[in-house]
Amino acid sequence: MKLKMLVFFGSSSTEHEISCRSAANILQNIDTSKYDVTKIGIDKNDEFYIYSGDIEKIKQNKWLKDEKNKYRITNIIDFLRNYDVAFPVLHGKYGEGGKIQKIFELANIKYIGCSSLESSVAMNKLLCKKLVSSINIDVVDYVDISKEKYENSDKKELIENIQNKLDLPLFVKPNKEGSSYGVSKVDNISKLYEAMKKAFTYDDTVLVEKYISDKKEIECGVIQKDKKIIVTTPGEIYSENEVYDYYSKYSSEKSYTKVPAIIKEETKEKIKKYSKDIFKILNLTSLARVDFFVTKEKIYFNEVNTMPGFTDISMYPKMLINDGFTYTEIIDTLVDNALNK
Ligand SMILES: Nc1ncnc2c1ncn2[C@@H]1O[C@H](COP(=O)(O)OP(=O)(O)O)[C@@H](O)[C@H]1O
Ligand SMILES: [Mg+2]
């Protein structure tokens, strides 16, 4: 009997389009002799639909307008109870932030990836920094500011306070976002307040970090297989813009990734060890991509993604494939983890 699998994509997350591109790749690589796959699109109002149109329309973000192939699901919890396993190929707050995992938990369906609690911890950059520094891995110096504090403090005092703790240049980001939404490099202190304002449109906590220049951006894949944690050979990002922003990530023809990363063997091994330790301290399951900045002096943990990109250009599958996995094996392993959680 084939396993009845649901693949989710879209949602109200800012990363809706990226999720569709990731899901299309997964759908193209699923072993359909093992799984009976139903495609579930989530629109930007978080309404669920069975989508029976072409995978290509998902990839090109045309499924939302493909009315004749969309069937609205009115009771998602009841609907889920008819299936064996769910694969939430969702990035950003909705999928990675733990919301959909809550629904799966309520419906008692097995699903790929971390639980709702661990997903929301992993999405929270501030909490991750605190947990990761507790195991003596460096994180970039930062100041965290709540929206309440931002709105109720004297502007001059707020800025001075940050200046006393961190030297320019600075980097401002929303605490819980992805795909570089709401981030800014700040070279001039007069631009800091504005940068924070932008970041606050995405989240109610903002991080102001020391800007790390002359760095390599290195990522490491983690996958569980038969309960063992496997870490990949790290990969490296070459971004067109100095900041690996949305354009450089998804549209630029000049950005690219290299697997394996061109770094010292010793640094590679450290990053692999750190990735495993971070996976454990954050209590993650099944899969994650752990991102670092590497300078001449230090290896900094930057962030973790519990549903990393699976687009054509994404690093996570690329790193696993470099270490001998096939795309289909990656999916099989993740399903196996979900069934044996
Ligand atoms: N402290 C920093 N110093 C320098 N560059 C940074 C810093 N933090 C983030 N960046 C740049 O911004 C990008 C996006 O930031 P990141 O924290 O990874 O957020 P997201 O979750 O949106 O990917 C990074 O890939 C990197 O290029
Ligand atoms: Mg990132």
Structure description:
This protein is of the alpha+beta class and 341 residues long. It folds into three domains: 3-111, Rossmann fold, CATH 3.40.50; 122-138 and 213-339, ATP-grasp fold, B domain (D-amino Acid Aminotransferase, Chain A, domain 1, 2-Layer Sandwich), CATH 3.30.470.20; 142-210, ATP-grasp fold, A domain (Dna Ligase, domain 1), CATH 3.30.1490.20. It has 13 helices and 16 strands. The strands form three sheets. Strands 4-3-2-1-5-6 form a six-stranded mixed sheet, sandwiched between helices. Strands 11, 12, 13, 14, 15 and 16 form a six-stranded antiparallel sheet that branches. Strands 7-10-8-9 form a four-stranded antiparallel sheet. The two termini are 21 Å apart. 41% of the residues are buried. The mean pLDDT is 95. Residues 291, 303 line the site of magnesium ion. Adenosine-5'-diphosphate binds at residues 140, 171, 173, 177-180, 183, 209, 211-212, 217, 243-244, 291, 302-303.
